# Entry
Amino acid sequence: MAAPKLGFFEKIANLTGALYRHQHAQFPRRFAILKAVGKHELAPPRQADWPAIKADWAKVQSFIQTGGYKNLSIREGLVYTAVTLEVVFWFFVGEMIGRRYIFGYLVPADYVSKSTKKTVKEQEALAALEN
# Structure
C-alpha cells in the first residue's frame, strides 16, 4: 500500500515539527553560550579595564584631530559609519525604553510646572496691588 500524498499544510506541519525538535535539542547548549557571552560583554568595566579604555579614547581623539579619517578606504569609512550609527540608534532605543513611550514624555494635559505657578502668583499679587 502506498503512503498517502501529503498536502501543503501537512508538509509545513511536519517541517515545523522537525525544526522544533532540532532547536529544542540545541537550546541548552546555545543558552549556555548566550549566558556566558552576555555575562562577559554586558558587564560594566572593571578597574583594570580603565587604562585600556582611556588609551583607546585617546587614539580616537588623535585620529579625529589629526584628520586620520581622510586616509580611510571607502570600506573602512562605511564600517565605522555603520558602527557609529548603530551606537546612536541604540541610544535612542534606550531612551524610548526608559521613558516607556516612543514619541516623547507623557505629560498630563492639566500639568502646570511649579515655576509657572509661582509666576502666576506673583502676577496676581502685582495685579492686586495695582487695583
